[in-house]
Amino acid sequence: MKLVHTIEELRRDLAEARAGGKKIGLVPTMGALHEGHASLVRRSVEDNGVTVVSVFLNPTQFNDKKDLERYPRTLEADCRLLKAVGADFVFAPSVEEVYPEPDTRTFSYPPVDTVMEGAFRPGHFNGVCQVVSKLFAIVEPDRAYFGEKDFQQIAVVRAMAEDLGFNVEIVPCPVVREKSGLAMSSRNTLLTEEEKAMAANIYAVLAKSKSFATNHTLAETRRYVVDSLNAIVGLEVQYFSIVDGGSLQDVDRWSDSDDIVGCITVYCGHLPVRLIDHIRYKG
């Protein structure tokens, strides 16, 4: 495995791999890697001749500076994990390498980027599109791998790739969970053990709501989830949207779509830490 810090060196190495007929897989990350990331890398290693993992804490997708400052930075540990799961290249550039000049590009893909995270984190998806489009241009991957925990992000990245004409297959991969059911996230490292136990209620309630939904209306199910989680000291729901899995638009009745997903964001603990998750009701 090779650690690369510059675009020039990475392009040179990948040109050699491409000339040898190898397919290239990309796993974009912001570091602080865990088993969820490892599962993406393993999938890429299975599918491709070369796997590139980017480790870059992208400042343009943080609308909260404190959130950016708190985000864990663990490159040495990340490299150990990536070597163990078979990555070929780790691309860990500086901010100046990725953004030699401010990126003033704007991306707009309504309706998928204007709801949920798009509504509550203005500019977030614009920053995601800025950095992912740069990574696609640098790496020119055949396939790119994203975890379904960031359910909405996958839809936005797909729209961006199509808009800019990138010839890349976007490969969504299943959520990886801790034994408690808590979706694995780099942000989990900011939680105390007590807060992690508290946060495990997020998926527990979502899972129960799937059974609840079989004989309750969609509105009743939404209320059940929000009220159940807000009743737990230390948890506060920011939003819970039940949406069409394709358009990401709210649905009012279970009969409105054959693909229905509940997407949630919950604040947990003393900092507090912002956690996202989702549950598929239909489809």
Provide the domain count: 2
What percent of the residues sit in helical stretches (DSSP H or I)? 25-40%
Structural class: alpha/beta
Provide the CATH top-level class of the largest domain: Alpha Beta
Q: What's the main sheet like?
A: 6 strands, parallel
H/E series, N to C?
A: EHEHEHHEHHHEHEHHEEE
Measured by DSSP, the beta-strand proportion falls in 15-25%
Q: In the CATH classification, which architecture of the largest domain applies?
A: 3-Layer(aba) Sandwich
Number of helices: 10
CATH topology of the largest domain: Rossmann fold
Strands of the largest sheet, in order across it?
A: 1-4-3-2-5-6
Task: Identify low-pLDDT runs.
Answer: none
Computed Rg: 19 Å
What is the arithmetic mean of pLDDT?
A: 97
CATH superfamily annotation of the largest domain: HUPs
- Name the shape in a single word: globular
| Total beta strand runs | 9
Terminal CA distance: 39 Å
How would you characterize this protein structure?
There is one protein chain. With 283 residues, the protein is of the alpha/beta class. It has two domains: 2-173, Rossmann fold (3-Layer(aba) Sandwich), CATH 3.40.50; 186-282, Pantoate-beta-alanine ligase, C-terminal domain (Pantoate--beta-alanine Ligase, Chain: A,domain 2, 2-Layer Sandwich). 40% of the residues lie in helices and 20% in strands. The protein contains ten helices and nine strands. The strands form two sheets. The chain has a six-stranded parallel β-sheet, with helices on both faces. The protein has a three-stranded antiparallel β-sheet with strand order 7-8-9, covered by helices on one side. Helix 2 (35-47) links the parallel strand 2 and strand 3 (50-55). Helix 7 packs across helix 8 (151-164) and helix 9 runs antiparallel to helix 10 (218-230). The protein is globular and about 60 Å long. The protein starts with a strand and ends with a strand.
